[in-house]
Design a protein that fits this description.
mainly alpha
Length: 223
């Protein structure tokens, strides 16, 4: 419990110290939200679905490449700038996204819990790609090596579970009951806060886990 509270507090503090993370998250959330007004990510029958999925596949790697590296820099009190975006991680992030989503969907199709379990075990693959320049398969291996115990998985699940309650509440309860244009602003604001917090929190968990294991940055050796 102390670990969860400590990491949550650190995440909010870092969010306040890094307005660029919130700014980039706001832009990303706005574009994705506007695209989903025509077709949701799961609305495969709609032709506009291709546009939505295409934007996610193109923008998500750039967004995460910047945000995850920014979190590491701010946490280490290093300077942060847009020019520091590791664009070379774009391809691996796309491949990793497809691999992990396919595994989670397959696990969820068999039963809900396997999908959640796979998602938690693979949760650090983006951090491994961006911060360690790992290839997708190596990044997944690294993530699984960092998440072998149930206690750590429980901490991640608790933080993410609580965080997910707010956007789910907006989508399932507030949006269906309200027809005003302002609900879209609320959705974007909630999505911005949610994405920024989750990416910061997971990256801080990752950095702490790596430090505990004594991993050397810039290598892909086993821990």
């Amino acid at each position: 419990m102390k670990t969860i509270l400590r990491q949550t507090k650190r995440s909010f503090v870092l969010m306040g110290r890094a307005p660029r993370i919130l700014g980039s998250t706001f832009l990303f959330s706005t574009v994705i939200h506007l695209s989903t007004l025509r077709a949701d990510l799961l609305d495969i029958a709609d032709p506009w679905w291709v546009v939505t999925v295409g934007l996610v596949l193109l923008l998500s790697p750039v967004y995460h490449a910047y945000v995850l590296s920014a979190v590491e820099n701010v946490a280490a009190d290093r300077s942060d700038h847009w020019r520091n975006i590791p664009l070379e991680t774009f391809g691996p992030l796309v491949v990793g996204e497809l691999m992990v989503n396919a595994a989670v969907i397959l696990g969820g199709a068999l039963f809900l819990l396997p999908g959640i379990y796979i998602g938690l075990r693979a949760i650090y693959y983006k951090q491994a790609i961006v911060l360690y320049k790992d290839r997708p398969l190596v990044a997944l291996q690294r993530s699984f090596q960092l998440t072998p115990d149930w206690r750590h998985l429980g901490q991640l699940l608790a933080v993410l579970g609580v965080a997910y309650c707010i956007p789910l509440g907006v989508d399932l309860l507030l949006r269906p009951a309200v027809s005003g244009w302002w609900i879209h602003l609320v959705s974007i604001a909630v999505s911005t806060g949610f994405l920024a917090f989750v990416n910061i929190a997971v990256t801080l968990f990752f950095l702490e886990r790596v430090h505990e294991r004594g991993a050397l940055k810039g290598t892909s050796d086993e821990y």
